[in-house]
TrEMBL record:
This is Cobyric acid synthase. It comes from the Bacteria. It comes from Hamadaea flava. Residues 6-234 form the CobQ/CobB/MinD/ParA nucleotide binding domain. The active site is at 340 (nucleophile), 427. Belongs to the CobB/CobQ family. CobQ subfamily. Keywords: Cobalamin biosynthesis, Glutamine amidotransferase. CDD domains: CobQ_N, GATase1_CobQ. InterPro entries: Class_I_gatase-like (IPR029062), CobQ/CobB/MinD/ParA_Nub-bd_dom (IPR002586), CobQ_GATase1 (IPR033949), CobQ_N (IPR047045), CobQ_synth (IPR004459), GATase_3 (IPR011698), P-loop_NTPase (IPR027417).
Length: 509
């Protein structure tokens, strides 16, 4: 028999992804054959799953992390519907790994039945294969404007008979109102599935929190299954770590005499900017996401990351003055790195009749290459050599290099460099430890930071594994795992009370 659970949240970024990963890790440690599932994700941070026939497909990066927590390779079934926003009004639809359409306000409802059918069938397939499937919701289950066509939150739970736990971020404030309001806005049949709450990102004394937890339980008839502490070390693969002006992670002191300052341009449609995480694990490397030309000018290394809308984000670079700052940085002989869409921006020309349909536009001209977009994406997990060492990465892009000048090779078949400017279509290349060290040493020399020295023993894969283990530790230490397992095994408890909005008005703590 297959068991399951849906982890929902009061808001986006409440912690659904990390709680799901932690529960997956806890179950895997118990010897349970467990898999993650998110019916629909909306994110430009994606990972590559390799199918049995050797072809690649896209899933949300969070589901790849959850797969690692289960001890599994990524599988396109773990995230059957992925929406990749290209603008405020349109998203690319990736169905079971392949880009198949675009969703807009006009065709939203007509596409929903197909997406829902795929999601429901895929979950049923996984439940036949695994002992437990831990599902992650999207946004909030109380988005009542979307409930009639929902197949991600309560619609999925109702269809599959899943118990639901709701995660709330107490660090944002208002968590008790969010928990109660989420439950109150659901109809009676949905409320019957909502089985408990999890408080996330708490810092302070639990004694001060306890009265509120007791009152919430009295008002709702549902238990609080635990309170997870705020943990500064949980920043890998977290989309909310990409905030403007924020130094990524907690960089250790340099091994040499100098720091290396890295400015990653926070594009409006940034895609897979998690590439910068591998740089940020190095002692002495301070990585900051920025949209300020002055911070670009002050940096030692400037990174243009991936973009879901290369042409539109390139126009934004010019409008904000960031393009001029990048050009001045390169003209001064200091290093500039472009990854995927960022690489395409460094080109002489970009011809895009696929994403923006803008035709031919001028790039920044820092690399003597021309880019042309093709309808079908390049998807893969290639292996190669750069800077005389092995490099592994993954590719997700429509753009191809259609013409290349006499340039030095860099990473990948079409990656190039010219003096201080480097470009590659490969994401994840800097997770290759020796390549990362050699590139940082090269970049530091170009930036005049001769006192910077990469650490010889930083292991990015071990850092990511430690993150997954830490999530499992937090679940075991701070959640009522007996109650959680009972929900997974037995489903929603019978007789959960239904409440109506405003029912708490006369309550006393």
């Amino acid at each position: 028999m297959s068991y399951g659970l849906l982890v929902a949240g009061t808001t986006s970024d409440a912690g659904k992804s990390v709680v799901t990963a932690g529960i997956c890790r806890w179950l895997a440690r118990r010897g349970v054959k467990v898999a993650p599932f998110k019916a629909q994700n909306m994110s430009n941070n994606s990972a590559i799953a390799i199918r049995a026939d050797g072809t690649g497909g896209e899933i949300g990066r969070a589901q790849a992390l959850q797969a690692a927590a289960c001890g599994l390779e990524p599988d396109v079934r773990f995230n059957p519907v992925l929406l990749k926003p290209g603008s405020d009004l349109s998203s690319q639809v990736v169905l079971l790994g392949d880009a198949v359409d675009h969703i807009t306000a006009e065709n939203f409802r007509s596409l929903k039945p197909r997406l829902a059918e795929t999601a429901f069938a895929t979950l049923a397939e996984l439940r036949a294969e695994y002992e437990v499937v831990v599902c992650e919701g999207a946004g909030s289950p109380a988005e009542i404007n979307l409930r009639d066509a929902d197949f991600v939150n309560m619609g999925l739970a109702r269809q599959a008979g899943l118990p639901v736990v709701v995660v709330g971020d107490i660090d944002r404030g208002g968590v008790f109102a969010s928990f109660y309001g989420t439950l109150a806005l659901l109809d009676a049949a949905d409320q019957a599935l909502l089985s408990g709450f999890i408080v996330n990102k708490f810092r302070g004394s639990l004694d001060l929190l306890a009265p509120g937890l007791r009152t919430l339980e009295q008002l709702t008839g549902r238990p609080v299954l635990g309170t997870l502490p705020f943990d500064l070390d949980l920043w890998l693969d977290a989309e909310d770590s990409l905030a403007y002006g924020r130094v990524l992670g907690r960089p250790a002191a340099p091994r040499g005499e100098q720091w290396l300052r890295v400015a990653v341009v926070r594009l409006p449609r940034v895609s897979n900017a998690t590439d910068a995480e591998a740089l940020a694990v190095e002692p002495g490397v301070a990585v900051r996401f920025t949209a300020e030309p002055a911070e670009v000018a002050a940096a030692d290394l400037v990174v243009l990351p991936g973009s879901k809308s290369t042409v539109a984000d390139l126009a934004w670079l010019r409008e904000t003055g960031l393009a001029d700052a990048v050009l001045a940085h390169a003209a001064a002989g200091r290093p500039v790195l472009g990854i995927c869409g960022g690489y395409q921006m460094l080109a002489r020309t970009i011809r895009d009749d696929v994403e923006s349909r803008a035709g031919e536009v001028a790039g920044l001209g820092l690399l003597d290459v021309d880019v042309e977009f093709a309808p079908r994406k390049v998807l893969g997990r290639p292996v190669g050599t750069a800077l005389d060492t092995e490099v592994r990465g993954y590719e997700i892009h429509h753009g191809r290099i259609s013409r290349m000048g006499r340039l030095s090779p860099f990473v990948g078949d079409d990656g190039v460099s010219d003096g201080p400017v480097f470009g590659t279509h490969w994401h994840g290349a800097f997770e290759s430890d020796e390549f990362r060290r050699r590139f940082l040493r090269l970049a530091a020399g170009l930036a005049g930071r001769d006192g910077f020295e990469p650490a010889p023993d930083t292991d990015f894969a071990a850092v990511r594994q430690a993150t997954v283990d830490r999530l499992g530790d937090l679940v075991e230490a701070h959640l009522d795992t007996d109650a959680l397992w009972q929900l997974i095994e037995q489903g929603p408890p019978a007789g959960l009370p239904a409440i109506a909005p405003g029912a708490a008005s006369g309550a006393t703590p």
